[in-house]
Amino acid sequence: MNAVVNPIPAPSLAELLRLPPYQAYSYSYPHKTAYRPLQPPRGLRELWAGEPRDSLFLYLHVPFCSYRCGFCNLFALARPELAKVERYLEQMERQLRTTCEALDEHRFVRFAIGGGTPSYLDAAQLRRLFDMVERHATIDLRAIPAGIEVSPETVDEDKMRLCRERGIDRVSMGIQSFSEAEVRALVRPQQRAVVEQAIAAIRAAGVPTLNLDLIYGIAGQTVASFLASIDSALEHCPEELYLYPLYVRPLTGLGRIEAKAEAKFEAKAGARLPLQAEPMDERLALYQAGRDRLLAAGYQQVSMRMFRAPHAPDVAAPVYCCQSDGMVGIGCGARSYTSTLHYSSEYGVARRSVAEILDHYLERDPASFAAADYGIALGEEERRRRHAIQSLLIRPGLDRADYRRRFGADCLDHLPQLRELFAHALAVENGEWIELTDAGLARADTIGPWLASAAIVERMRDYRLG
């Protein structure tokens, strides 16, 4: 990793706690905005040779959607040409074949298709996707946890039946809100009847785990309307519910709307506004109300966002995630994680940027998939921080004994700043575990960024998003 010259001093936890709790979502560490071109590229065979390859996670990325939601900053393209979708599936198979050959002897024990919206594909295209996986990868989809992400308007009984027959046991659907006024505020054309039809199709297919995503912090949303959406979701008895705070990020639809409004205000005021902390809003109150409603319904809180029903299958299984070491990503926008290198294609949000990156992927020579050319190498410090962040933000928390086995010292010696969590009653020591309190979980989007290294923060700050 490049050395950082005179990095900006990191704020203390006490300083961050004076700001609104929603600073950034620590989905994966380091964030993709810390990735850069790899010079020279790293051959996959060499890269994976020293890694455990008997319990890998295979992730396929389908970067297509029927529309782009106003809040979405994922690598996705709305309404692509049919020919582009067909070419993409062909290229995915080339990448999958080359990657599996580079892995040599291997075994996948988890599988997910994400996006974008994988269910944007028609049934024949989905079947083609499953066929290529079984043709090239050492995997038994019917014997391992396997998930797919869908959107309501792209779900039908034929697709869900096919997915279940091929081994899918978890379907995750972003609803965001059961209020049509609120989904319109998210620039999301969606009707409640379509949502309920989609849920019925998923249930009819016999999928064991249904996950529904809801968003809080939408313009015009109140505690009462948010709880009404949660109650509507609970009527369908989902095995999992995720509550996501709304973030308005640059270059998204909502971000462009907000930027135009700010520009008009600044022009009227005659000067640029000074930089300031994000204003306080209602998201924390909404989160607390939603959390309390789900706990009262018997759901277990696993993380700030994730709640699991008492009737969910395999409650002792690892938390579903796509951010662990040993993940092999296939498709434009997919990330792969070894213990020492994270790699992917480039990252973009704006339609033009996404289209350019996708076109580059479609033009690649099949042999080029045998090397990683864009990503970030992780030194020992970053590996320790990654492990601490990922463990701490999910209950039961950070296992100090496991940390010592992995890294040869106690996590409080490597990361003494963790003690600040105890001082602010955001975490407790529970035997060998460091576990976030309820107040700590509520502050997960402050704690995650606070644990990032100065070097990663600097790389992310210098990234020019397209």
UniProtKB/TrEMBL annotation:
| Protein name according to UniProt | Coproporphyrinogen III oxidase family protein
What SUPFAM superfamilies has UniProt attached to this entry?
Radical SAM enzymes
PANTHER family listed in its UniProt record: COPROPORPHYRINIGEN III OXIDASE (PTHR13932), RADICAL S-ADENOSYL METHIONINE DOMAIN-CONTAINING PROTEIN 1, MITOCHONDRIAL (PTHR13932:SF5)
Co-factor requirement: [4Fe-4S] cluster
A GO MF term = 4 iron, 4 sulfur cluster binding
Q: Which domain of life is it from?
A: Bacteria
Q: Which organism is it from?
A: Lysobacter enzymogenes
Residues in domain Radical SAM core?
A: 50-285
* One cellular-component annotation, GO: cytoplasm
Keywords, A to Z, come to: Iron, Iron-sulfur, Metal-binding, S-adenosyl-L-methionine
- Which PROSITE patterns does UniProt cross-reference here? RADICAL_SAM
